[in-house]
Each structure stands twice: as C-alpha cells, then as structure tokens.
Amino acid sequence: MKIKSYQGLKFRPFIECESIRSRVAELGARITEDFKDRNPLLVCVLNGAAPFAVDLFRAIDTDAEITFIRLKSYEGMGSTGTVKQVMGLGEDIKGRDVIIVEDIIDTGRTMTRLVDDLRAMGPASVSIATLLFKPDALQVRVEPDYVGFQIPQKFIIGYGLDIDGLARNLNDIYVLADEDTPKA
User: Fold this and answer.
1) Looking at beta carbons, which pairs linking 14-18 to residues 24 or more positions away fall under 8 Å?
2) What percentage of the chain's residues is helix, strand, coil (to nearest 5)?
3) Residue 141: burial class (beta carbons within 10 Å; 0-12, 13-18, 19+)
4) How many other CB atoms are there within 10 angstroms of residue 19's CB atom?
5) pTM for the predicted model, two decimal places
6) Strand partners, 161
7) What pLDDT digit, counting tens, does each position of 12-41 carry?
8) In this structure, are strands 97-105 and 41-46 parallel, antiparallel, or unpaired?
9) pLDDT for 119-151, tens place per residue?
C-alpha cells in the first residue's frame, strides 16, 4: 500500500485488506452461531457499508437475507449533525431478526435514529454490525453487537468510506496522514 491523495489531502495505509477479510470472516462466524436457524435480515446502510455488508453476508453460513437503505449525515470530512433518509426500507420487518450493517459508527446519531426507527416497526430483535467503531467520538450511547475494528478518532477512507464520493473502491483503509487536520 502506498500514500493516496484526494482533494489535496494525503492518506496513509491504516488497515490492509487481508486484515479486513479475516475480521469479516470472524464476524460472519459469530453471526452464523448467534442466528442459526433464524434467517436474519441484514439492513445495509448505503453507500459506505456496501462492501462490508456484501462480504459479511457471504461470510454468514446460515439462511439470511439482505436489503439496503440510504441515510446521509456526512459532507466532506465531517458530520452535518443531522440524519436525512434518502432511501427507506421496503420490507416488512415485524417479528424479524434485523442486523443493521454500517461502515462506521462515530457520533452515534445516525445509528441511534436508525435503531429507533426500526424498533418502531416491531422486529423480534435489532442488532448492530459495524466495520469500524470510534468510541471516543460518541455523542450518544451506542453499543454495537459486532465490531470489526475499534479505531481512534481519525478521518479514514477506503473499503466503502469516502471523501465526497471518492475512494470508496479502495480495498484497504487509509487514514489522513496529517495529524493536525480536524478530526471527523
């Protein structure tokens, strides 16, 4: 892996794709065990969680389904502080086991709103799987059930995470190289 540049900013390697693949396999095995014979519905939060959700879905070795929603709370390198639903859930989740699949949890606002919205629809359970978790950035209490990596409060890109739509297609995760840049 080498330094990547986007919008005049430099990003250095942070988590290699082999580590991501290994951790996703571990999470898939845990979900398989936890939801054996229960047919959970994975709800992928687009756009960022798509690579993680697809890889996680394939790592689950029990019947499961997947669907997609789209929320927006970021612009550029930071949270806007508000959560906007762009594409909602089309499935009936009453009585279903739901696993929200997110790319990253930092402030917790998006996840809190989504969990509340889904619980109002009467599922049997709601669990959270996130590739990345920034506990030091939390502004509201969120406790994900499945965490790929706990990371410091740094701005990252790659493997679905973007900077204004760019860098989502990188197989590895990169961190902003300049330590003096504002944290997301």
Assistant:
1) 14/151, 14/154, 14/156, 14/158, 14/172, 14/173, 14/174, 14/175, 15/149, 15/159, 15/172, 15/173, 16/172, 17/159, 17/171, 17/172
2) 25, 40, 40
3) exposed
4) 14
5) 0.88
6) 158
7) 999 999 999 999 999 999 999 999 999 999
8) parallel
9) 999 999 999 999 999 999 999 999 999 999 999
Cα distances (Å, whole numbers) of residue 126 to 31, 119, 129, 146, 147: 13, 7, 10, 12, 15
Active site residue 106: yes
Task: Kindly name the residue from 55, 97, 106, 172 that is annotated as catalytic.
Answer: 106
- Spatial CB neighbours of 61, under 8 Å, sequence gap ≥ 6: 28, 29, 32
Structure tokens at 56: 């996680």
Angle of the 50-59 helix axis to the 17-34 helix axis, nearest 10: 50
- Alpha carbon 157 to its chain centroid, in Å, reads 12
Backbone angles phi, psi at 159, to 5 degrees: 50, 50
